Amino acid sequence: MKSVLIIVVLSASAGVLFSGCAGVLIAGGAAVGATSVLYAKGELETTFETDLDNVYKSTQAAMKNLGIEVRAYEKKPNRALVRGVLKDGTAVRVRMIPQTRKTTRLIIRVGVFGDEEVSNRILEEIWSQVNKAQKRGFQD
Fold first, then answer.
1. pLDDT tens digits, 21-68
2. Nearest Cα to Cα of residue 131 among 21, 71, 49
3. Residue 32: DSSP 8-state
4. How many CB atoms lie under 10 A from the CB of residue 81?
5. What is the pTM of this model?
6. How far apart are the first and last CA of the chain?
7. Cα dihedral 106→111→115→121 (10° resolution)
8. Helix (H) or strand (E) holding 84
9. What are the structural domain ranges in the chain?
10. What is the pLDDT of residues 86-120, one digit of tens each?
């Protein structure tokens, strides 16, 4: 019975990890080395292998590119936050927390209850902007 449960859990995990944006980030071998992507309790979470400053600038650029109106942003040494609003009035919140000097945890919430599809689109654009930044030399 335990082996059946483990297979079901692993199969379900693989479906989450290799679908949509997560599949691109993991299977595609992201240049920034994004780790696994988790969507739970209305929040999409991942870790980028790049510093807080790069993820923060990339998040602002991504939101602008997606037409998300940025309403508030702040960056401190131990965290960063960008808040915005979609065209339909839905709130977007992106939190960034440095894990080390070269890794940053990213957490996206869209709306009160979360929206996985929109969160994935935002993540894809942030990922794209981080990679562009690295190519331009934002990194050490």
1. 444 343 333 445 566 899 999 999 999 999 999 999 999 999 999 999
2. 49
3. T
4. 17
5. 0.74
6. 51
7. -60
8. strand 79-85
9. 2-136
10. 999 999 999 999 999 999 999 999 999 999 999 99
| CB distance 54 to 135 below 8 Å | no
> CA–CA separation, 27 vs 21, rounded Å?
10
pLDDT at 123 over 60: yes
Alpha-helical (H) ranges within the chain are: 2-17, 20-27, 52-65, 116-136
Q: Is the pLDDT of residue 140 over 70?
A: no
List the structure tokens of 41.
């309790």
CATH of the structural domain 2-136, one choice from 3.40.120.10, 3.30.160.110, 3.30.70.980, 3.40.50.720: 3.30.160.110
Q: Are strands 79-85 and 69-76 parallel, antiparallel or unpaired?
A: antiparallel
